[in-house]
């Protein structure tokens, strides 16, 4: 049993890209699906789908650039189950000078740092990805 589903999800994406896998399959949750769709909007993954065979599963297809390199170079889990970190909208700073993104869980849904500043919504800072 995994206690940190978000941490497990982002590490699976990073590790799958490191070995050149095309997709990652993991147990479905609405929260993880929303995060995966936000990563698709940001260009870090190419496709998100859910399937129901024995159990409902979430399948995420990884995105590679024209040189064949994985788009996710690094991830950093900020808020953890033992220590939740919240940030107001004005403190949702850019990551790696705009090359990455900070993902927040807000009352308005899962947002990137730029979107959170735009709609002035603060929330739990889940992770940084670049």
List the helices and strands and how they pair.
Elements: H1 5-19, E1 23-27, H2 30-42, E2 45-52, E3 56-62, E4 75-77, E5 86-87, E6 101-106, E7 109-112, H3 113-119, E8 123-129
Antiparallel strand pairs: 1-3, 2-3, 4-8, 5-8, 6-7, 6-8
Key traits:
five-stranded antiparallel sheet, 8 strands, alpha+beta, 32% strand, 130 residues, Dna Ligase, domain 1
Protein model, in words:
The protein has helices spanning 5-19, 30-42, 113-119, and strands at residues 23-27, 45-52, 56-62, 75-77, 86-87, 101-106, 109-112, 123-129. The protein has 3 helices and 8 strands; from the N terminus they run H-E-H-E-E-E-E-E-E-H-E. The radius of gyration is 14 Å and the shape is globular. The strands form 2 sheets. Strands 4, 5, 6, 7 and 8 form a 5-stranded antiparallel sheet that branches. The protein has a 3-stranded antiparallel sheet with strand order 1-3-2, with helices on one face. It has a single domain (5-129), classed as Dna Ligase, domain 1. With 130 residues, the chain is α+β, with helices and mostly antiparallel strands. The mean pLDDT is 93.
CATH architecture: 2-Layer Sandwich
**Beta-strand fraction estimate:** 25-35%
The tally of helices reads: 3
Extended strand count: 8
Percent of residues in helices comes to: 25-40%
| Rg, Cα atoms, Å | 14 Å
Major sheet characteristics: 5 strands, antiparallel
Beginning-to-end CA distance, first to last residue: 28 Å
What's the quick description here?
This protein is of the alpha+beta class and 130 residues long.
């Amino acid at each position: 049993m995994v206690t940190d589903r978000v941490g497990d999800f982002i590490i699976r994406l990073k590790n799958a890209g490191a070995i050149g896998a095309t997709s990652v399959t993991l147990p479905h949750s609405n929260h993880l699906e929303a995060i995966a769709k936000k990563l698709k909007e940001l260009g870090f993954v190419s496709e998100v789908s859910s399937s129901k065979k024995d159990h409902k599963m979430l399948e995420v297809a990884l995105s590679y650039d024209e040189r064949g390199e994985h788009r996710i170079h690094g991830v950093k889990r900020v808020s953890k189950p033992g220590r939740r970190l919240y940030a107001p909208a004005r403190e949702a700073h850019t990551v790696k000078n705009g090359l990455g993104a900070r993902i927040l869980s807000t009352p308005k849904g899962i947002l990137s740092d730029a979107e959170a500043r735009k709609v002035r919504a603060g929330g739990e800072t889940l992770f940084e990805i670049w």
